[in-house]
Design a protein that fits this description.
Strands 6-7-8-3-9-10 form a six-stranded mixed beta sheet, sandwiched between helices. A four-stranded antiparallel beta sheet has the order 2-1-4-5, covered by helices on one side. It has helices at residues 45-52, 75-80, 98-102, 117-130, 147-160, 177-192, 204-210, 233-242, and strands at residues 7-16, 19-29, 34-38, 60-65, 68-70, 83-86, 165-169, 196-200, 213-218, 221-227. It is an alpha/beta fold. The chain is globular, with a radius of gyration of 19 Å. α6 (177-192) links the parallel β7 and β8 (196-200). The chain has two domains: 1-82 and 163-246, P-loop containing nucleotide triphosphate hydrolases (Rossmann fold, 3-Layer(aba) Sandwich), CATH 3.40.50.300; 98-161, no CATH class.
């Protein structure tokens, strides 16, 4: 049985003032897959994910979600399609607790417009249980949480609102080894539930530990996509620096 990609990019192009930030990029994200997206600063990674997340419209090309052509003109469009993005700064409010952050801007309200805090707390607990995750207390301010716990809150927010595709921009950049390991376990748990994850990182060790496949960009173009098990770090570095494909392993 053929498994259909969750997301398909076909010939995506985006220019800014005549500069091709993304040029004719085609790649797929599969259900339950962690796809590592690599490349130097300016390679086009951020522009590509911002097109998928609705920050920028593509100039040309097509995006398909679950096999259907879609028009993503805003972040709202992306969220309605189940595409959620967690940026490096996490976009959390440190003066609020975990529950308030999870529902920030999408609060559960009762008949008369008042927030239903009990329903939100119960929903937050259910989501964290689904992720096999525990926090010290849901009532603690986010400011008191560790970096890994904050990352978990940001991920829980995306998962609660039915993310089918999760874009993670440098999710372990500011974390120590143990918290990086915990976030890695969480990413693998989400993938096991069928969520497709696009994992952007400059840390090859993290990428090799977590990603099923690696897509490398250089100067706005896709160098290629390889199965992680078929390549080593030197071959991937050659793709990043020189834009050359390994002799074997192209996925």
């Amino acid at each position: 049985m053929t498994i259909e990609p969750l997301v398909q990019f076909r010939g995506i192009t985006k220019t800014f003032g005549g500069v091709h930030a993304v040029e004719n990029v085609s790649l797929d994200v599969m259900p339950g897959e962690v796809l590592g997206l690599l490349g130097h600063n300016g390679a086009g990674k951020s522009t590509l994910i911002k097109i998928l997340s609705g920050v920028f419209p593509a100039d040309s090309g097509e995006i398909r979600v679950a096999g259907q052509p879609v028009s993503i003109r805003s972040t709202r469009d992306a969220k309605l399609l189940g595409i959620e993005t967690i940026y490096q700064n996490l976009a959390l409010s440190e003066n609020l607790d975990s529950v308030a952050n999870l529902f920030l801007g999408r609060e559960i309200c009762g008949r008369f417009g008042f927030m239903n805090e009990e329903a939100m707390e119960e929903a937050a607990r259910t989501t964290l249980q689904r992720m096999k995750l525990r926090l010290p207390s849901l009532s603690n301010l986010v400011a008191s949480l560790s970096g890994g716990q904050r990352q978990a809150v940001a991920i829980a927010r995306a998962v609660h609102f039915n993310a089918r595709v999760l874009i993670m921009d440098e999710p372990t950049a500011a974390l120590g080894p143990e918290e990086t390991r915990k976030v890695g376990v969480l990413i693998r748990e989400l993938a096991s539930q069928g969520i497709g994850i696009i994992f952007i990182s400059h840390d090859l060790h993290d990428v090799f530990d977590l990603a099923d496949r690696l897509s490398v960009m250089k100067n706005g173009r896709l160098v290629g996509t390889v199965a992680t098990r078929d390549v080593d770090q030197d071959q991937v570095l050659a793709m990043i620096i020189a834009g050359t494909l390994p002799a074997k392993g192209v996925a």
